Amino acid sequence: MGFFEKLRSKLMKARKSFFEGLSQLLKGKRISKEVLEELEERLIAADVGYETTQYILEKLKQNQTNDAFSSLKEILVELLEGNNQVDVESNKPFVITIVGVNGTGKTTTAAKLAAYFQSLGKTVVLGAADTFRAAAIEQLKEWGNRIDCTVISHNEGADSAAVAFDTVNHAKAKFKDVAIIDTAGRLHTKKNLMEELRKVHRVLGKVVEKAPHEVLLVIDATTGQNGLVQAKIFKEMVDVTGVVVTKLDGTAKGGIALAIKKELGLSIKFIGIGEDMEDLKPFNAKEFVDALLD
Amino acid sequence: MFENLQEKLSKVFKSLTGQGRLTERNINDAVRQVKLSLLEADVNFRVVKEFIDSVKEKALGEEVLKSFTPDQQFIKIVRDELINIMGKSSVSLNLKHHPSVLMLVGLQGSGKTTTAAKLGNHLRKSGRNVLLVAADTYRPAAIDQLEKLGKSIQINVFVGDRKNPIKIVKEALEFAKNSQYNAVVLDTAGRLHIDEEMMNELEQIKQLSGPDEILMVVDAMVGQDAVNSATEFDRRLDLTGFIVTKMDGDARGGVILSISHITKKPVKFVGVGEKIDAFEPFHPDRVAARILGMGDVLTLIEKAEKELDKEKMETIGKKMLQAEFTLEDFQEQLKEMKKLGPLSSIIEMLPGAPKVDLETSEKQLKRTEAIINSMTPEERRNPRILNASRKVRIAKGSGTTVQDVNKLLKSYEEMKELMKRMKHGKLKLPFKI
Ligand SMILES: Nc1nc2c(ncn2[C@@H]2O[C@H](COP(=O)(O)OP(=O)(O)O)[C@@H](O)[C@H]2O)c(=O)[nH]1
Ligand SMILES: [Mg+2]
Q1: Chain A CB within 8 Å of residue B398 CB
Q2: Closest CA to A220 of B262, B145, B220, B234
Q3: Chain B: closest CA distance from residue A209 (Å)
Q4: For ligand 1, is residue A274 a contact (CB within 6 Å)?
Q5: Can you state the angle between helices B70-86 and B24-40, rounded to 10 degrees?
Q6: Are residues B110 and B133 in the same domain?
Q7: H or E element, residue A153
Q8: Is any Cβ of chain A less than 8 angstroms from the Cβ of B274?
Q9: Domain residue limits at A229
C-alpha cells in the first residue's frame, strides 16, 4: 500500500464521522446561509476553533465560487501550506528536540522519527532527556532496541541538559547525521519547567552551532482549543519551528493544527497515525486535505 | 483552569447590569457570548446547543425576574444549568466486593498509569490494603513505570508474566484474595475506542474481574472528539465514572460538561499535578461556581478543615496576636500549611486571588522551612542566642547562606513587631505570598 492509500485509509474513519456528506453538501453549490451554517458546525466539531472557522468561512464567501467544495479545499490547503520540510542535510549533525505537554506522544514520535531518517539512509542517535517521568528512559531504550538506534541516557532524575550535551557530543564524535532529543512532558504553564527546556537548548547551541535546528512541538489530535495556548507559549519560550500531530488514526481531526498554523505560522511537519515505528509520515497539505475531504 | 471562560462570562453579566429587565434582545446577546465561550472551552457543540436552548427558555420563562437584578438572575440560570449538566453533587466510589476491583481505561496518553498510583494512594489513605496491577503490556516500559511509582509510595505492584494482560489480571486477583488485599487497581493499556480487538480485550478483563468501578481517564485538554471516545467506552464497558487529569494546566475543561452530559456518568476525581497526592474528589457544584467566577472557596474550606489541626492553629493564632510567636510555632504552621497541598492549588481556589509568582514563593517557603528545621529547639524558641557560628552551622545544614538566615530572622522580627500592632486585625500568614 502506497503512502497515499495508507494515509487515506487511516483517515477514512475520520472522514466518515464528520465530513460524511460534506462533498454532497458542497459540490457544485454556491455559498448559501445554510451551507455556511453547516460548514461552521463541522469545522468547530473538528476542533478548528471559532476564530479560524470564521476566517475560513469569510474567505469562502469572498471567493464567490460556483463550487463550494473545491473552493474550501483550496482554502484549507493554502492555509496549511508553508515550511513543511525538515532539511536534515543542512547541518551535520542536525539536531532536533521534541517538546510538548504530557502524554501527547513525544517519546513515540522521537523513536518513529529516528526510524524514518534511518530508512532514508541517515545515521541517527536518540537522547533520553526525559529524566523526570518514571521509566521514560526505559521506554526510549526499548524503542532504541526495536529500531536498532543508539540511545544516550543517564539515570532517572539526572540533569536533562547533561543528557542533551552527551547526545550531541556522541553525534559529533561518531559523525552521526541526526540527533533527536526526547524531553519530558511539561505543561506550558509551569515556568520553571519551561526554563529547564531553555537550558537544554542553550547547552545544545554551545556544542553544535545554531542547534537545535528543529524544535518540534507534539500535539495530540484530540487536543481542543488549549492547543493554541500551548503552541503560543512553547513558541515564545523555546522557539518551536514546527508541529507534529499525533494520533490521527483515531476519530479526532486535529483541527487545532489549522488554528496553530493560522495564528502562529507554525507548520505541520509530520503526522502520527499509529503506534508502530512506520506510523509517522511527512506532512503534505494537499494530500492531507484530499484524504480528509475526498 | 476555566479562567478565560470565567472572564468572558463575567463580561456578559456586566453588560446585563443596569438593563432593568431580561428581554429577548439582551438575552440573545448574552446567550451568544455564553455559547462562544463554551465552544472555546471545548464543550461539545451539541451539548452547547442543548445548554443554550434551556438557558434561553428559562431566562424568558415565567419564574424569572422576582427578587433578582437581571444579571444576578442570569448568573443563577446559567449556573443552575451548568450544575444540571455536570450532576448535582460529588459522587464517591462505590466499593462492595472483597476485594474491590477498580479498572482504569482510556485513550493513549491520558494519564492512566499515574492515575492508578494516585488512586491507589487515595484508597490506602482511606484505610484499604491496595494492590496495583500492571496490565499495560503494550506501551514500552509502562510496567516499569507503574513498578517505580508503586515503590515510591510503598504499594505492591503485580506484574505477572509481563505479557498477557488477561492472564496477569486473573493471577493478580487470585493473589489478592490469598494475600488479604481488599482493593485492586487495574492499569490497562491506552487504546483507541475504534480498535475492535483492543476494546474486546477490555470487555474480557471486565468479565473476569467483575470490577466495582470502571473509570475512564480523560485528559482535561481534549476537544470535541471526547464525546465520541467516551460514548464508545461507555457503550462497551458501562463505565461507572470518569477521572479528569491535568487540571493543573490552563485548559478550560469544557470536556467535563460534555462527557457527563452525554454519558450521564459522573466525574469522580480530578488530577491536579504530577505528584502522587495531586488528586482530588470532583465537586460539580463547586466547579460551576468556579466557572462563574465565584472561586472555589468551599473546597478550600473543606480541605482546610480536614487537614488542619484546628486546635494547634488556634493556639498559634493566639500566640501570634500576643506576639509570643516563636520560630517553633512557625515551623509547626508551615507543616500544617503543607498538608493543604502545593501553594498554587490553594491560591487558585481563592476568588480574586492576586496573580503571584507561585513558583518563587514556593521555593522561598521551602528555603524558610529548611532553615528553621536546621535550628535546635532551643534556638527556635529563643532566636536571640543565634551568634555568627550558629548561623554558619544553620546555613550549612539547610543548604542556604548566612545571608538567607539573617533575612529570615529579620522578617521574623518585623512580623512579631507587626503582630504587636495588629492585635485587632485578622490572622495573617507570617510571610509574603
Ligand atoms: N494511536 C496512536 N497512539 C499514539 C501515537 N503516538 C503515540 N501514541 C501513544 O500515546 C501514548 C503516549 O505516548 P508517549 O510517546 O509515551 O507520550 P509522551 O508522554 O509525550 O512521551 C503511548 O501509548 C503511545 O503508544 C499515534 O500516532 N497514534
Ligand atoms: Mg515521553
Answers
A1: no
A2: B220
A3: 33
A4: yes
A5: 40
A6: yes
A7: none
A8: yes
A9: 88-293
DSSP B212-259: SEEEEEEETTB-TTHHHHHHHHHHHH---EEEEE-TTSS---THHHHH
Residue A228, min C-alpha distance to chain B (Å) = 10
Cis peptide before B99 (omega within 30 of 0): yes
The amino acid occupying position B248 is D
Shortest distance between the Cα of A242 and any Cα of chain B, in A, equals 20
For B:32-61, CB contacts with A below 8 A are: 36, 39-42, 45
Report yes or no: A181 and A191 within 8 Å, Cβ to Cβ.
no
H-helix segments, B92-164: 112-125, 142-152
B29 CB neighbour count, 10 Å cutoff: 13
Q: Which of A44, A136, A190 has its CB closest to that of B39?
A: A44
Using a 10 angstrom Cβ sphere, with 0-12 exposed, 13-18 middle and 19 or more buried, the burial of residue A143 is: buried
State the distance from the centre of ligand 1 to the C-alpha of A107, rounded, in angstroms: 7
Which of B104, B105, B108, B191 for a ligand 1 pocket mutation test, highest count of atoms within 8 Å of Cβ?
B108
Is A183 strand, coil or helix?
A: strand
Q: Which of B290, B313, B340 is the last residue of a domain?
A: B290
* ipTM score: 0.91
Relative to the CA of B190, which ligand 1 atom is closest?
Answer: 23
Residue A103 one-letter amino acid: G
pTM greater than the 0.90 cutoff: no
Q: State which residues form the domain around B220.
A: 100-290
Q: How many domains does chain A have?
A: 1
Q: What is the CATH number of the domain that holds B415?
A: 1.10.260.30
Largest pairwise CA distance in chain B: 77
- Residue B141 and residue B259 share a domain: yes
Task: For B397-414, write each residue's pLDDT tens digit.
Answer: 888 899 889 888 887 777
B111 lines ligand 1 (CB under 6 A): no
Q: Atom of ligand 1 at shortest distance to CA of A101?
A: 20
Joined together, the cell numbers standing for residue B24 give: 429577548
Residue to probe by mutation, ligand 1, list A108, A186, A283, most atoms within 8 Å of CB: A108
Centroid of ligand 2 to alpha carbon of A151 (angstroms)? 14
Using the Cα atoms of residue A154, residue A158, residue A161 and residue A165 in order, give the sign of their dihedral. Answer: negative
C-alpha cell at B400: 542556604
B298 in any annotated domain: no
Name which of A168-172, B273-277, B282-286 the model is least confident about.
Answer: B282-286
Does residue B95 sit within a domain? no
- The burial class, CB within 10 Å (0-12 / 13-18 / 19+), for A43 is buried
| Relative orientation angle of helices B226-237 and B196-209, to the nearest 10 degrees | 40
Q: Could you tell me the three cell numbers for A282?
A: 511527512
What is the domain-level CATH number for residue A228?
A: 3.40.50.300
Which residues, numbered 30 to 59 in chain A, qualify as contacts with chain B under a Cβ-Cβ cut-off of 8 Å?
41, 44-47, 49-50
Span from the CA of B401 to the centroid of ligand 1 (angstroms): 45
Read off the pLDDT of residues B323-379 as tens digits, 9 standing for 90 and up.
566 777 777 766 766 665 555 555 554 444 444 555 666 777 788 888 988 898 888
Report chain B residues whose CB lies below 8 A from the CB of A47: 42, 223-225
Q: Please give the distance, rounded to the nearest whole angstrom, from the Cα atom of residue A183 to the centre of ligand 2.
A: 7
State which ligand 1 atom lies nearest to the alpha carbon of A271. Answer: 27
Q: How close are the terminal C-alpha atoms of chain B, in Å?
A: 20
Q: How many CB atoms lie within 10 A of CB A158?
A: 15
- The overall longest dimension of chain A from CA atoms, in Å, is 63
Distance from CA of B42 to the nearest CA of A (A): 6
Q: Is the pLDDT of residue B127 over 90?
A: yes
